[in-house]
Amino acid sequence: DSGVTQTPKHLITATGQRVTLRCSPRSGDLSVYWYQQSLDQGLQFLIQYYNGEERAKGNILERFSAQQFPDLHSELNLSSLELGDSALYFCASSVETATEAFFGQGTRLTVV
Amino acid sequence: GQQLNQSPQSMFIQEGEDVSMNCTSSSIFNTWLWYKQEPGEGPVLLIALYKAGELTSNGRLTAQFGITRKDSFLNISASIPSDVGIYFCAGQLGGAQKLVFGQGTRLTINP
Q: Contact A34/A90 with Cβ under 8 angstroms?
């Protein structure tokens, strides 16, 4: 158990809908990362927050947004969903930025 | 775009064989991390490297941070069936905040 908690574990939704994925980082970790992993693909960096502020942005679509709250949990919002958004979404956390990052179990999103 | 080149993409070996995989980049990295991912699970951190030339072991796993800071390798000695999975390298670019990942090496072991 990495100490990073992601909910829900599975999510099935229809095209055009909006979903919110939640991540609770390890106790004491200030930095949260979000990654997308499509079938048999690598991990694509989406966005990073550190202590509530956005620190780095990857190839995140405009339909996607994220935030980190004062209690350090983070949410990734995906809207106007398309079939191609079906993927595993991982959250990771670390004490500082870009140090050892620990991953959650992921949320498997299926868009039908 | 992808800034880390990880090779090989896949490996098929016999149990007991040693394994070697590497990551290279044209950019300088400050940190190299190696992860293992099993089906349906999140990546698990295996080894972290912070200094050029650093050689670190974790059981049968050994990883090195290249002297040029542009590469890293991971070796697994005497492979066993539970080593099966996808191995990812990850690195922090100098001056950047984010961790970038290689495309992964899929390891399959024949008993």
A: yes
Measured between alpha carbons, how far is A18 from A80 in angstroms, rounded to an integer? 6
Amino acid, single-letter form, for residue A80: S
What would the mean pLDDT of B76-82 be, rounded to a whole number?
Answer: 96
Contact A11, A109 (CB under 8 A): yes
Tokens of A64: 């996607």
Share of chain B above pLDDT 90, in %: 77
Q: Is A101 on the interface with B (CB under 8 A)?
A: yes
The two three-digit tokens of residue A49, written as one number:
């927050």
Q: Do B97 and A55 make contact, defined as CB atoms within 8 angstroms?
A: yes
CA distance B89 to B96: 17
Report yes or no: A81 and B75 within 8 Å, Cβ to Cβ.
Answer: no
The DSSP 8-state label assigned to residue B95 in this structure reads: T
- Residues 6+ positions from A83 with CB-CB distance below 8 Å: A15, A111, A112
Please, are residues B22 and B7 in contact by the beta-carbon 8 Å criterion? Answer: yes
Given a cut of 80, whether residue A47 has pLDDT beyond it is yes
From its phi and psi, is residue A10 left (phi > 0), alpha (psi between -120 and 50) or beta?
beta
Minimum CA–CA partner of A57 in chain B: B98
